[in-house]
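Recall that a protein's primary structure is simply its ordered list of amino acids. Everything else, from secondary elements to tertiary packing, is in principle encoded there. The following example makes that idea concrete.
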Amino acid sequence: MKTHDHFLSRIYMLFFIAWRNLWRNKARSVLTISALSGGLFILIIYAALLEGMVKQMTEFSTNISSGHLQIHRHLFKEDQDLYSTIPWEFIQSLEQENQTLTFSPRLYAAGLASSGEISIGAMIKAIDPAKEQQVTTMLEHIRSGNTHLSKITEEEFDFNRYYVVVGAQLASNMKVTAGDEIVLITQAADGSIGNGLFVISGILKPIEPNFDRTGILMSINAYKDLMYLESGVHEVAVGIPDNADITVIKQQLQQSINTLSSTYSLNNSSDVIELRTWRELMPAVSDMVEVSRAAIYILGLIMIGLASMGMLNTVMMSIYERKHEFGILLSIGMGHYWLLLMVVFESFIITLISVVVGTLTGIFGAVYMQNHGIDMSSYMPDGFDYAGIIFEPIWKGYININDIFVSIILTFIISLTASMIPSLRITKMKPVEVLR
C-alpha cells in the first residue's frame, strides 16, 4: 500500500513540475498550442464542410432524383428498350406486399421539342406527381412557374392539352418561359408519329446536367396519349423510411420481386426485373462519397502532422536548454525513465490544452457552417456542377461526431509521437557527460 501511495505521489510531483516547466518559456508554449489547436480547428471545419458535401451528394442521389432503390427490366436499363416495361399489375402487387415503402412509376422516351423556329432533342420523363413527391423532392426544385402537370380543361384554354415542366438549360436554349407553348414530336409505341402541343407550367432548377439540357417532365396520362404505351412502366423509384437499412430493405424487396415474377411469368432470362440501390445505379457518385470520407483522414494526418512539427521543435529545444538541469537530476539519483516521463507530461499538457481549445473553436465554427454555410449565390445562383452532381449555391457543413473524435485522437497520437522522438534522447544521457 505504501509503495502504491509513493508511486502516485511521485507521478503527481512529476506532473506538477511538468506544468511549471511548461511556462518557463511562455512564448514558445503558446506558439506550440496555437499551432496544434489551429490545425485541429481547421481540420474540424474542413471535415464539417466535406461531410456537408457528402450529405448533399447522398441527398442528390436519393431524395432529389433517383430514389433509394430503382426497379427496371434488364433490357430497358441496358438498351433503353421502349417495350421493356414492368406491368402495372406487378407494381400494384409489389405496393401491397411492401406497404412501408413508397413507389413512384416512371416512363421515358426520346423526342423533338419545338418552339417557334427552335427545335432541340429532348428526353421525356413521365411521372405520377403525387407518388413522385412521396419518393423524391424533384418537384420542389422549381425556378419559376409551378409543377402542375394535369390536363388543361376546355374552360381554361379551349384546348384539350397537358402541362409540362422543362429543364433549366433547355428552357434557356429554347427561349421559353412558364406559360409558353411547346410542340413535342416522337415515335410512338405503335409505330406512328406521336405529337402534341403542351403548355409549360414551370421551369426546374438545375438538378442533373443531362436533364437540365434536354429534360421534359409530364404526367403519365400525357405520356400515354403521346406515346400510346399502356403495357406498363420503364422504371419504379423506391423510397425507404428514414434511418432504415437499405441493404435489409433491398433483400426483402428482392424476395417480393422474385416471388411476383414467378406469379406473373416474368422470369425471362434475357429481360429479368432488376433491383438496384442508388450506389449501384451511380457508382461514380458512390466512389466520390467514399473518396471524400477518406480525404478527411488523409488531410487530417497532413495538417496535424505539420502542426506537430512545432511540438517536436519545442521539446527538442526544451531538452537542449535543460541538459545541465537533467544532468543534476540524474546525478542525484533520478532515473532516466522518470525524467522521460516528466518531459512526456509536458507534451501531454500542451496537447491537452490544444485539443480543448481547437475542439471548442472548431465545433463553434462547424455549427456556424452547418447553420449558415458559405454563400456563393451572388455569382453562382443555381449552384455548381461537380462530376455530374448539382450542388446548392450555399455550401453548408454537417457535424459528424465521429469526425471530431477521430480528429482529437489523431492530434493526440501524432503530437505525442512527435514529442517522443527527441525525448528518447534522455534515456541515453550520462550525468558525467551532460555536466561536463
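The chain has two domains: 2-62+286-435, 68-281. The chain has a mean pLDDT of 80.
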